[in-house]
Every structure is written in C-alpha cells, then in structure tokens.
Amino acid sequence: MERALTDTELFDRQLIRRRVRRAAELGRADFLIERAAEDLAERLGAVTRIFPVALDLGTATDAAARILAARAGTECVVRAAAASLSGPVQVVADEEHLPFADASLDLVTSLLSLQTVNDLPGALIQIRRALKPDGLFLGCLFGGGTLTELRQAFVAAESEVEGGVSPRVAPFADIRDVGGLLQRAGFALPVTDSEKVTVRYDNPLMLMRDLRMMALTNPLLARRRAPMRRATLMRAIDIYAERFCDADGRVRASFELIWMSGWSRHESQQQPLRPGSAKARLADALRTIEIGTGEKPGE
Predict the structure, then answer these.
(1) Which of 25, 68, 110, 210 has the most Cβ atoms closer than 10 angstroms to its Cβ?
(2) Which domain holds residue 97?
(3) Which H or E run includes 38?
(4) H/E element holding 156?
C-alpha cells in the first residue's frame, strides 16, 4: 500500500535511498564529501570541548566518522543513515525520524545529507533534543547556489524544445533561512556560513555522470516520470557549453556548501543581557550625541 503524501513533502525518500545504495555499489564520487570532511576536522579542531559520544548523521561515506573517531576524548562514534551502506553503520535510521533518546549524545555531525530532508525544521529539533546540555551540532548541506548552471541550461532547453518546464534540480536552502531554522529549533549560539566550490569538467555529460555517482540526480516527487527527450538533453548540453564554458573549453559547475552549528542550551553558556540592563551608553563610547526617537539631528 502506498503511503499518503503531505503537501510539505518535496523529496522521494525511498528513491534517494535506492540511489545512495546504487552509488555505493558503482563507486561513489565522494570528492565533495571529502572536502567537507576536511572542513569538519578544522572546525572541530577549534573546539576544546570533549565529546565522548558522537553521531554522524546521514553522511553517505565514512569520511565524517573517521574524523570523529580520531578526535581525542571521543569514546563512541555512531553512524546513522537512511540506507544500509558498506562499512560500520551501527544504525539504519531516516534523518526525519531519529531513534535516539533525549540528551543521549554529545556531538552530532552531518555532511551533505540534510538538504533532501522533507521536514528540515523537525529534523533539527530532533537533533537538538538528542544532544546533552552543552552538546554541539555541526552540519553541512548544499545551498541555493548549487548547480545554478545546470538549472539554467535545463530551463532554457525545455522551454525551447518542449514549450514548458518541469522540475529537474532540487531546491536548496538559503543561508539566511538556515540560520532562522537553527533558532527555531532551539539551538543556542547558532552560526551559519557558506562557501562556493567550483568544479570544472571537460563537458556537461561528465558532470551528469558525477551527479549520478553522488546520488544527486532528480529526487523530487513532482518530477516528470517520462524519460527525458533526447532532443531536450542535447539542447541542454549545448546551452550549458555555450553559457558556462571557460577559455580552455572546460565547463563550470557551482556547489554552495552551507555550514551550520548550534549548541544545546546550558547555564554555563554566555547569555544575552536583558533589554535596558546596559550600564554604559553607546553614544558615550562613540563620542557622539544621542538622538531620541522622533527627533531630528540639530533639534
């Protein structure tokens, strides 16, 4: 029996799991995950806290788990993924339905997985609840600047060849929205930042091959189920090469990596002052004249 879908569901989670398994079997293209893992090691290196129990949530390879296992003070590393993968996966769990008890984890990381969660606010709330007081969440997901070239090429090709457009590339989160979601989920000290990574290919077909090997092909529930017409595909390839080709003949593909971090609340953390509790005036510090509400300079 098919499960009833809700209006908020965008992604075919069962299809994503099948594609993750297929990519692992065929030999996954994991260079972006390895890049994110290097950044993860650097970011964790700046944190002096000890994290005895750490969870790697949804990362398609063991890259993050290796970083966590090598960290001093980490006694237990658990990998959880929606699809059973090769390697030491201790828990098979969907990122939307975490099986961990409240306040059971010291650290949760996730690399390039959460962008295809239907209920990202709910997933972040579950992560925060699973963290012990003063526990850390550190995650990376694809942002809105990802695959802009491919999206433009497909839109132009379908409009020209078929007279209409179907969803071909999944929507990605905006960095401002991600920061708001961390606050909404109840994280303390939320921080977000982004990095653009440009990958160059000999031709667009090589990009599409890598996307298949990264399990990043179209996962949308609203995708067109009929195979793409050959004329549309060839026109999209031509448009891509015309618009996004460098002087040496290679084409560009953009990936935006959004990093987000937040802590579960604890009384030892720095707290914001109550409004009106300041003991010094900003105007005095700046050596200027304070202008009251409704007043104009010079009055």
Answers:
(1) 110
(2) 13-265
(3) helix 31-45
(4) helix 148-161
105, part of any domain = yes
CATH value at residue 159: 3.40.50.150
pLDDT at residue number 296: 59
CA angle 28, 31, 36 (to 5 degrees): 120
Asked whether residue 197 is domain-assigned, the answer is: yes
Our separate counts of H helices and E strands in the chain read 9, 7
Q: Which residue carries 């237990």 as its tokens?
A: 76
Tens digits of per-residue pLDDT, 279-291?
Answer: 666 667 666 766 6
Q: Which two tokens stand for residue 285?
A: 């510090």
- pLDDT at site 12: 86
Where is 177: in which H helix or E strand? helix 175-184
Q: What count of other Cβ atoms lies within 10 Å of the Cβ of residue 191?
A: 13
In a domain, 231, yes or no: yes
Which residues, in sequence order, are bridge partners of residue 136?
Answer: 107, 263
Kindly give, in sequence order, each residue whose CB lies less than 8 Å from that of residue 182, ignoring residues fewer than 6 positions away: 124, 190, 192, 260, 262
The answer as to whether 115 is a domain residue is: yes
> Is this model's pTM higher than 0.70 or not?
yes
Dmax over CA atoms of the chain, in Å, equals: 74
